[in-house]
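G.,

No rush on this.
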Amino acid sequence: MVELPDGSWWDWDVVSCDAGELRLGAGHDLTYSHGLELVFSDPLCVQCPTSFQDPVFRAPRRDEVEALALRLGEMPQVLVEAEAEAEAEAEAEAEAEAGGTESVTCLVAAGGVDVVQGTVFRYWRGELEPGERHAPWVRPPGAR
């Protein structure tokens, strides 16, 4: 199970994802920045919405581990599961409660995971302090 440092990690989203790495960002409000990332190396299976809130991480149940190992043909080195809230799907939205969210199970099987703290800006800032960086999609004004 993943251990998060103390902090306000309510909002979560997928910062980047490719064959070699999945990066989830977390913070109390993702509008301008996030302060925590879970960086999964060599993701084998990813089942989570692109954004979700207030995850409760838990150890996977034995039947979930066995089913995933059977599906993948191998036991993943890292298996992280969480119960979270996400925006309701269009067809389920009418059935969702007033908040427009539904409970989802997030699952990531990967080769490894690192917990990285530091401010990651989601907009261009000229001068960055040590430990600060830009999100991968942020470019200087006028850059393509």
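When you get to it, here's the other one too:
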Amino acid sequence: MEKILISRCLLGHRVRYDGGAHGPFDQLAVWQAEGRVVALCPEVAGGLPTPRPPAEIPGGQGAQVLDGQALVLTQAGEDVSAPFISGAQQALALVQQHGIRLAVLKSRSPSCGNLETYDGSFSGEKVRGQGVTAALLSRAGVQVFNEEQLAAALEALQALERGRSA
């Protein structure tokens, strides 16, 4: 059975930067009941507290953070890149440990955003790009979806399982 890495906040865990959570999402509950879910909040895993100051990537590109070309900064200018990278590395370790090929991560997050993130100005402006964890998992060949793409994630899961049983 395929396992799926899922952001803890999408499972109702109060780990968001503001101490909040998201959900419930019916599809995630189904996968949880089936024993597919491997849950992780990369920011908490990387050592950041809950709640914590909001953070953004100037330029919005997690891949640049991984390559040492950009930083993850709080609004006060504190560099929190190291915990973001550590959390991404822990996510990758879970992916490798469990043979995970799919992830459902929180949209627009500086860790987990898969299509867009905030631009680093703390103005609500978004740019196309990935968060640090999403970028690292994508590099490793993991298909990364967000909570607004659950139907597509389900289709991808079904395709993977068809391929495995063929």
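The first strand starts at residue 4 and ends at 7. Residues 81-98 form the longest helix (18 residues).

Enjoy the weekend,
O.
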